[in-house]
Structure formats: C-alpha cells, structure tokens
Amino acid sequence: MISVESLTKQYGSFTAVDHVSFTAATGRVTGFLGPNGAGKSTTMRVMVGLTRATSGRVTVTGRDYRELVNPGLEVGVLLDASAQHAGRTGREILTIAQQTMGLSRTRVAETLARVGLTEDEAGRRVRDYSLGMRQRLGIATALIGDPEVLILDEPANGLDPAGIRWMRDLLRGFADQGGTVLLSSHLLHEIEVIADDIVVIGQGRIVAQGSKAELLASAGTLVRTSDPSHLDRLARALHEASVVTTPIDGGLRVDADPELVGEAAHRAGVVLRELRAADGAGLEEMFLQLTAETAREGAAA
Ligand SMILES: Nc1ncnc2c1ncn2[C@@H]1O[C@H](COP(=O)(O)OP(=O)(O)OP(=O)(O)O)[C@@H](O)[C@H]1O
C-alpha cells in the first residue's frame, strides 16, 4: 500500500503539490490522472525519495522509502524510461540491477522474458531501442526484485495498442497476486482501461478520487432522440424533476441513472434512440471540467 498524507511541495513561492492525500491500495491498480504540469511526477518523485516534501508524508508499505534497506526488493520504480544509460545494452542494465539487489543471475533472463524482450533485443544498446522497448526495459528493472509495490510514471508512453494490452495484463496479474500498482498518465483512456481506482489531480490539488466504477457511474447517462423537439421536451421534464442535464452532440448527458431517464422519457411521451450509462465519454467530460482551470487550452480561451 502507498499512503500520501497532506503532501505539499513548493518550489520557491510556486506550489506544485498542495495538500495531496490519497492511498493506493493493495491488490488494486490505481491510476493517477491529471493534465500536463498537474503535479503527478512531483508527487511520485517525493514517494521514492528523489524530491523532498515541503510538508506532509508519504509511506510505501508503511515506511518512508528512504528507510528501505534494499528498496528494489520492495518497490519497483519507473519514472523516466529515457533516463536509462544509452550506451549499455538492455541485458547489462538488468544485470547491474540484479547485482545491486543481490539477486540470482537467472532473474535477468526470467525478467527479460516476462517483459517480452528477446535475446537479440537484450543484446542491443539502449540508444538503438524504440520508445516502447525502453518502457519494457524500464518495467523489467522495476520488476526484477519481485517487489510488492510498483510506481510507474507514464509507463504506457510509446507503447502500441498491443503493448498497452500487454501492460494491462501484466499489471492486472501483479495486482491480483496482492501487489500495489500506482501509475500516472495524462491520457484518460489509458487509465480507464488499466486502473481499478482513479485519483485525479489538477493544479497540484486532488479534484476527484474513487473507484473507476464509482467515477463512471457519477458520469451519468447519455440519451439521444431521433426528433430534436423530443430532446427539448425530455430536458424540460428532467429539469422539472430537478435533474441536471448538459447538452452534448445530438443528445443530453443527464446526472441520473438510465432507469430514471427512461421513466421520465416514457412519462413525457418521448421516443428514445439511445439510452446508456455514460462511459468513457462521460469520464472524459468530467476530467476536462474538473481540470479546466488548469488546462492550457482552457486558460487560453
Ligand atoms: N524542479 C522544479 N522547479 C520548479 N518548478 C518545478 C520543478 N519540478 C516541477 N516543477 C513544476 O511543478 C509543476 C508540476 O510538475 P510535474 O512534473 O509534477 O507535473 P506532471 O503532472 O507530472 O505533468 P506532465 O503530465 O506534463 O508530466 C509544473 O508547473 C512544473 O513546472
């Protein structure tokens, strides 16, 4: 488990992380989501002792990361896949990790196989790796010590769709065996397919957190009608029942569950073309709204 308690990080007078609190639970994949510059990397750097907190506390498996004697055996970390030594081969990098952590030599080949890097690829220099291969090598370095916790900053960066599916399966398997996974991304869809729990950060502050199911449920219902005048009638009926609606392309997003919306449509004599729980689209809308103040596009408008 990872526990972040009222973490604040200031750079001079600028507050990059502002009283952030959340936990990443054992057996779950927690997605840490936020727009560029929201404070995700800073929070993760504090977690692994690379940056000092101004105030607040982070514990990983109940302790401060800097207290861990052989941290790689407890926490696997991938913060920047391009920070690996470009002149070394993938196998050399993993061998150094294996020796530093005092692991058996067989772990190198086992871990290479686990992340899908071939013998041939492992013998190439990292400067000749694709971004996706660097990510796999970074994940291998994080996994080699068989840790309980994984902390991964933008691990899907550069992975193709098959690579993203591979990573999802790997992280799912890791969590199902009792591991804790925290991964960051500024891409909603990535987090949506991989995470069980989601923490949303904007401008250094937590703006939403909960299980993916809860957050998706709070995204409401999408409803469309073939006849636009029916949509207006439905919107009026819902407003009279104090239900909030937001116009979307050719329809409405309603802050209520589909059953209630279906009943309201029936009472108002409205024929529906589409009625469903708002999924990713709703979550994306929520994410953009929650982080609008911080988004460059929003700020510029
Ligand atoms: N060493 C530093 N000195 C001053 N400001 C910093 C420093 N490191 C980070 N910041 C600022 O803190 C804020 C948060 O940055 P951070 O890298 O944590 O964001 P992020 O959520 O990881 O963004 P991205 O998705 O773009 O990687 C940014 O405004 C950044 O410019």
Automatic annotation (TrEMBL):
Q: Name one Pfam family in it.
A: ABC_tran
Keywords from the named record? ATP-binding, Nucleotide-binding, Transport
SUPFAM superfamilies, sorted: P-loop containing nucleoside triphosphate hydrolases
Q: Where is the ABC transporter domain?
A: 2-228
Coiled coil (UniProt feature): none
Q: What is the lineage of its organism?
A: Bacteria, Bacillati, Actinomycetota, Actinomycetes, Propionibacteriales
> By its UniProt entry, which InterPro entries does this protein fall under?
AAA+_ATPase, ABC_transporter-like_ATP-bd, ABC_transporter-like_CS, P-loop_NTPase
Q: PROSITE patterns annotated for this entry?
A: ABC_TRANSPORTER_1, ABC_TRANSPORTER_2
**Name the record gives this protein:** ATP-binding cassette domain-containing protein
Tell me one GO molecular function of this protein.
ATP binding
Q: Which family does it belong to?
A: Belongs to the ABC transporter superfamily.
